[in-house]
Structure formats: structure tokens, C-alpha cells
């Protein structure tokens, strides 16, 4: 495959991160693992949050890096520990309630008899490497102070897929298997289209910023001192695109502009404001963590799908990514497919938050790293991003455990069939698509 300049810089960032450990193998992390003799304090028993299965025991604590965490032990333990890397990233100061929200959503893990451990992460916003370190740290706390699992699995959900992929490469001996659901697994390219959205939106709407407001590069998302709020952004989007109105109440101009965005960026109307939000506030956070310099750019991108592509491309504002920022961002967030253990991924094919096509990048990288046989990918007939339903996850965990412990590599068809074999499961609860053929990310996000 021919690499674009941006891709080469991304791979360079990953290579730099791994360089320090090349003497002992490609998966040796740059960041040292926590010592085998734990310096961490033992967690304390506390009341379980709402949604935890009856009979479970809950433990809380704050690790040496100041990350809060939650551990849940089921009434009857299978001997399996699932370490959960949560989605996001949540901007601002981390909140301990994040772990409560996660275990309520992923209570199925404990219902299956598995222990669950989740870090809130010490740092808010886009900090993947430190989140991977926090994920490893909560695993060590469990092993040193709670129990010795027979098997430890790493589960990355959404943005947590990015965290889990970093943790899997940084700490290859910590995990027996990895499950990635709705995961951000395509590295920095996942976020490029949000700058595309900002650029096209500004061309069409010219209100972010407005003409009478200080100009700034859209590649930084938003100036650090801006007081713009989420509500302000939504109001501006509604003013230009009519996003809060039924389609019949939009003006012809609003409908035309919204259609241009939907057609060119291949996203549904319902997701425009959400992505515009990420392309504003999350990009600002990424840039702040990169020393105020942006790793995003759209120079050379040719947009297609509008009523007049030539006019669109001539008018859309252009920005160049800073090469050093690109390398820094990649070094923090990216992976090279160098996973030492079995990996199962699953993704909804109509997920408008994290595009399913990113899963093809995961496949390509694992194949390139010689790990293609360690990956089994599954696809679900769903537009849901966060949680498909209780029926989907036990078959995925069971397949990963059989692969890890018995050497029985699963197939997508076998996982789909096992979903239907669960008590009370119906076809509507198990919409796996074992024959689905995924497309490359470049078919959905313009390469650069």
C-alpha cells in the first residue's frame, strides 16, 4: 500500500515510541511497567453503585498517579479479570462517577462471573499514553491486593479502543487477550474528518468564528481563551443549518448547506452537531496537549459529493498540519498492530460516531506486523455506538476465552451462532453480520 505523507509521519511517531525497546522486541514499551512489588495502596470496600449485579463486592481507590478506580468482584468469580478502558475522552477534570457509569453499562461482564476493573484515568481530555499507564496500574492493583486471576482480558470501548491498543503494545505480558468494541483503532486519521467538517462548515456558514470575531486557524479547534460553550455552538449550527428543526421547517438555504455537509462527509444529519463539537472543543484539547500546535491539516484534500465540487474545493479554507505535532500526537495515541495476544474486534456497521471503516486499518496494521492471524473481526447490523445490548458481549468474551485458554480460534459465523444459542436470545438480539466485507478508511475519511 502506498503511504500518504501524513501516514508516514504517523508511522514515524509510532516507530519513535518503540525505538527504545527494539533490543528486546518490537512490543517493548518506552514507558516502564509498574514494579512487580506494588507501591500502590490497597483499595477499600465501598457500597456498589447502581446497576451492579446483586451479591457483587465493590472496591475503590486512588492510585499513585492520582487516578480513581473501581473494582467489582462478582458473587461467584470465574477467575477471569476484565480490565476496562472507557470511552471519551471527557474534557476537564476526571470525575469518579465515570467508573459508576461504566459499570452500570457493562454490568453484563459481572453477570457473566468476571471481575471488572476500570480506571477513571488521571488526566482529562486527549491523553492516551497516560490512560494506558493507568489501565495497567489498576490491573496491578487487582493482582497485588484483590486476587490472582487465571486469565486477564483487556476491553477497550470507543476511544478506550485507542487506549487499549496502546496498553496492549506497551504492556504485552499483562493481557491474555484483547476485545475492542466500537473502537477507535485507526489512529490519528480517525479525527481528520472533523477538521474537514469545520472547514466545510465555515465555508458554508461563516459563523464559527463570525466575521466580527477574531479569526483563528480552524485546525486548532478553538482558541484557548475562547468562552464559546456547547450551547453556543449548537445555536450557531441551528442558525445556519436548521439542525434543531424538522426538515420541513428548514429554509431552502439551510437544507442545501446541510445536504452538502452530509453528502461530502458521508455522515447522517443527526451526527453533524456532535462531530462539530468534537471538531471544536476536542481539537482544542489535542492542540493544547501538543504545545499549541495542530497535528491536523487538510491541505491537498479534494472534497467530492457536492453540487459543485470545483467551487467547493476552491473556497474551503486550507490548513497545514505541523510535522512535529503530527509525530507527537501519533507517539501518544497510535499503535502499529504489534499485539502479542489474540484480538477480537466488533463494530456496528452504521456507527456514525466512530466509523466502521477504521476497523480495516486495524486489520491492515496487524497483517503488516505479522499478526493477521491473531485478529478476528465481527460486525453488527446497528447504528448504535455505545452499547448494543446484553446478548452481544458474552459470545465475544467466551470466544476470546476459548481462543486464549484452549487455542480454539473463533470465526465470525461461530460467534454469531453462539449469540443465538443463549437462553432467551432472539434474532433481533443477535444481529451479527459474519459475511460483512468492510471497506478501507479512505473510502470514508479523505486521506492526506
Question: Could you explain the architecture of this structure?
Answer:
- With 448 residues, this protein is an alpha/beta fold.
- The chain has two domains: 5-189 and 334-443, Rossmann fold (3-Layer(aba) Sandwich); 191-330, no CATH class.
- Helix content is 38%, strand content 11%.
- The chain contains 14 helices and nine strands.
- The protein has helices spanning 5-19, 97-105, 107-111, 128-145, 159-170, 192-205, 230-241, 252-265, 272-288, 309-315, 323-333, 358-368, 393-406, 412-420; strands at residues 44-46, 57-62, 68-73, 80-85, 115-119, 151-157, 177-181, 343-348, 375-380.
- It has a nine-stranded mixed β-sheet with strand order 1-2-3-5-4-6-7-8-9, sandwiched between helices.
- The radius of gyration is 22 Å and the shape is globular.
- The model is unreliable at 1-36 (pLDDT under 50).
Provide a brief overview of the structure:
Helices cover about 40% and strands about 10% of the residues.
Number of strands: 9
pLDDT < 50 stretches: 1-36
CATH C-level class of the largest domain is: Alpha Beta
Largest sheet properties: 9 strands, mixed
The outline comes out as globular
* Helix-and-strand structural type: alpha/beta
How many domains is the backbone divided into? 2
Q: Strand order, biggest sheet?
A: 1-2-3-5-4-6-7-8-9
Q: Give me the strand/helix succession.
A: HEEEEHHEHEHEHHHHHHEHEHH
Q: What's the tally of helices?
A: 14
CATH names the topology of the largest domain as: Rossmann fold
CATH architecture descriptor text of the largest domain: 3-Layer(aba) Sandwich
